Amino acid sequence: MDGALREQRVIPVPGIANRLRVSPSGRLLAWTVFVSGEDYTSAVMSTRTGILDTRTGALVHSLEEFQVIRDGRPYRAADENFWGVTFAADDNRFYATMYTDGRRYLVEGGLAARTVRTVKENAECPSLSPDGT
Fold it and tell me: Mean pLDDT in each 10-residue stretch from start to end of the chain (133 residues)?
């Protein structure tokens, strides 16, 4: 929506958004949805987290498209789920939660490089303060 709450673009998602975040500049939007029919109480939940650059229109349908570096090595698994994005002030770097292999990780991502790397295990739903810490 624009400043007058007029619809500007519709992005179909496979469920209802349960987390939304806007970058400090207002340029980037992130959302997380549970895939239809799933929620936190499901034995196996599935989420999709996307990012939209409102200036360029570039759309990341799912962070699962990004290259994952887990513990310093390339990693790929069918059970990767991401949620809880928070943006740094530079409109490139972000943090999120990744779940895979029975573990939760804090990940740091880069939009330009289309990568995420694990930072810490057992962390969830990051949020940066105004000073970036």
Answer: 84 83 94 71 73 94 96 94 94 95 95 97 87 84
Whole-number pLDDT of residue 35? 80
What is the chain's Cα-based Rg? 15
Q: What are phi and psi of 64, to 5 degrees?
A: -65, -15
Cβ neighbors of 72 (< 8 A, separation 6 or more) are none
Give the fold, CATH level 3, of 17-121. Neuraminidase (2.120.10)
**pLDDT of the residue at 14:** 81
Note every long-range contact of 71-75, with CB atoms under 8 Å and residues 24 or more positions apart, other chains counting.
71/118, 75/100
Q: Up-side HSE of residue 117: CA atoms within 13 Å toward CB?
A: 8
pTM of the entire structure?
Answer: 0.87
Half-sphere exposure of 69 (CA within 13 A, CB side): 11
Nearest to 51 by CA among 101, 114, 8, 118: 114
